[in-house]
Structures
1.
Amino acid sequence: MVGPGTGVAPFRAALQERLCEANVLFFGCRSESKDFFFRSEWELMVEAGGLTLFTAFSRDQEEKVYVQHRVREKAALLWDLICRRKACFYIAGNAKQMPASVCDSLKEVFQQEGGVSADAAAQMLAAMEKTSRLQSETWS
């Protein structure tokens, strides 16, 4: 799941529903102190063992960090979840650059961890979409 800014709202509901299952959320926003939506709820879910949370606060340091950077950093975990455990991958948020950037990062994960070509990685992503294991809800 990737939900920068207000894109995190649908994942909040999904995680509340699925708290008993293992979930991974990549959350990004500009500032941890101003924009960390539902922080206390995420922390409770982490403490309960129902959520692994990775954050990206783009304006809290000199070099901007976005959710797609965190996706690449967690390549081994994502490869295991998606390719071995058949996890689903959901993206929600602003439709400008984020969804394409996250998908590009996911293809890089497939190439790095799976040792596949760029074409094969793109085909893997397309297959996930076709089988509804990759879904996106974006707006502008």
2.
Amino acid sequence: MAEEQVFSAVKDKGLVEKRRKQMIKGALNLFKEKGFHRTTTREIAKESGFSIGTLYEYIRTKEDVLFLVCDSIYDQVQVRLEKVINVHGSPLEKLVSVTEAYFRLMDEMQEEIVIMYQEVKSLKKDTKEYVLQKEREMVQMLEKVIVTCLPEESISSKDAMLMANNIFIQGQMWSFRRWMLQRQFTLEEYIERQTQFILRSLSIGAPKKGEK
């Protein structure tokens, strides 16, 4: 968990969570405007609503703040995907719903996704590995949905893993390539076309309404 990765002099878990939420929100605003490297810890403290001294009670370095930001972004994505996965419906409907929910979330979090991928290289090796592991876990969630919507043994584990990564990247591409894609497609068009590509590559068609 994030609290185990980042040192805090404060032992009140509720207060640590509250302050770090403020810190993440403030840091994101600054990273969007200035980027990680041009942002100072003093600016983060001010934007978060407390002093630089208070800031250092909850983190040790600016890289700790970046880690908390990346961890928060992945947590939001994971929670949203889990909610859709747990909704009742046929396996195929679930794949379509999860894909759509993921793409819409990538649209909502465009700035955050771009920041995370631009700056994750600045993390230390161990914290970077933690963040990358969270990404692997999300890809595995997509992989399980893919496998359950197909006849047993109709797709190899490697192909399922590759398709899950394709979906993962196609969602993020809406953020990374927005300067071009969003001139050509609405979000709805992008989701519809990408979903059809995904289903065709799996040799299945889009589910009809009410199909089980």
